[in-house]
């Protein structure tokens, strides 16, 4: 018989008998505590705290916090888009404007002057300006409404609001490659157009009209939240369109 087995059995018997012979003796056994996992709350910076390295262009801030559009964008996704992609356009645009004749021009003037002769400036100015409009196009208030004047223009151009939404989505899905979706006004008439890459309707070689609304159709704008489901991205954007901003832009275009 195995001697180790006998030794263990003998020790166990002694311990058992000892405990039985002394009923008042208690053996303290430590019960491990149950582990409790508490998720730490994620905090996001205030958009106003995100700054460019130098002027003349500044980050515009956002009309909402990073976690206040969570049914449209994951907060981490929105933070990345604003703090990395948009900020990079702003910083690189500032570097390219430094000590040039147009350094003190407004961004709309710079965008108007940007053309195919200077692809770098066109890309940087467009990327910066387009995002400025994009953030204002969206609101954390669902289903804001155009005022009576803009609604009349929508009815004239698209029949009604349903007609606008249908064409807005169709135009977005028709775009091949990266670009932007716009609601524009020209001569008091509305149209929905797309532009490739970072071009926009104000650029002098396009002269399409005044932007009222803009939606980013670059993959970086939706993939992290929606993967390749562009349909749902556009549907959700439509629910968050800031018609109060569009009203202001339409008034400026008259």
From TrEMBL:
Domain spans labelled Manganese/iron superoxide dismutase C-terminal: 146-248
UniProt keyword Metal-binding present: yes
Binding-site list for Mn(2+): 81, 131, 216, 220
InterPro entries in alphabetical order: Mn/Fe_SOD (IPR001189), Mn/Fe_SOD_BS (IPR019833), Mn/Fe_SOD_C (IPR019832), Mn/Fe_SOD_N (IPR019831), Mn/Fe_SOD_N_sf (IPR036324), SOD_C_sf (IPR036314)
Pfam families recorded: Sod_Fe_C, Sod_Fe_N
Manganese/iron superoxide dismutase N-terminal domain location: 58-138
Catalytic reaction annotation: 2 superoxide + 2 H(+) = H2O2 + O2
GO molecular function terms listed in the Swiss-Prot or TrEMBL record: metal ion binding; superoxide dismutase activity
GO cellular component, one term: cytoplasm
Keywords, comma-separated and alphabetical: Metal-binding, Oxidoreductase
EC number: 1.15.1.1
Family: Belongs to the iron/manganese superoxide dismutase family.
Function: Destroys radicals which are normally produced within the cells and which are toxic to biological systems.
UniProt-recorded name of the protein: Superoxide dismutase
Record organism: Myroides indicus
């Amino acid at each position: 018989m195995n001697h180790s087995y006998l030794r263990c059995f003998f020790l166990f018997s002694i311990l058992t008998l000892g405990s039985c012979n002394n009923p008042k003796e208690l053996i303290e056994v430590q019960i491990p505590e149950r582990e409790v996992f508490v998720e730490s709350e994620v905090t996001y910076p205030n958009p106003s705290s995100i700054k460019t390295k130098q002027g003349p262009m500044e980050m515009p801030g956002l009309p909402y916090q990073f976690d206040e559009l969570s049914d449209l964008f994951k907060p981490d996704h929105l933070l990345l888009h604003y703090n990395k992609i948009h900020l990079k356009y702003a910083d690189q645009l500032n570097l390219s404007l430094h000590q040039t004749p147009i350094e003190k021009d407004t961004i709309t003037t710079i965008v108007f002057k940007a053309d195919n002769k200077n692809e770098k400036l066109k890309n940087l100015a467009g990327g910066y300006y387009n995002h400025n409009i994009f953030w204002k196009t969206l609101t954390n208030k669902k289903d804001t409404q155009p005022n009576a004047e803009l609604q009349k223009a929508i009815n004239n151009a698209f029949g009604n609001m349903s007609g606008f939404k249908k064409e807005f989505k169709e135009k977005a899905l028709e775009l091949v490659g990266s670009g932007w979706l716009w609601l524009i006004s020209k001569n008091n008439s509305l149209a929905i157009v797309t532009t490739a890459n970072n071009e926009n309707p104000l650029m002098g070689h396009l002269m399409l009209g005044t932007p009222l609304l803009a939606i980013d159709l670059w993959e970086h704008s939706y993939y992290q939240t929606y993967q390749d489901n562009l349909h749902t991205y556009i549907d959700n954007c439509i629910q968050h369109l800031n018609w109060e901003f569009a009203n202001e832009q339409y008034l400026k275009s008259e």
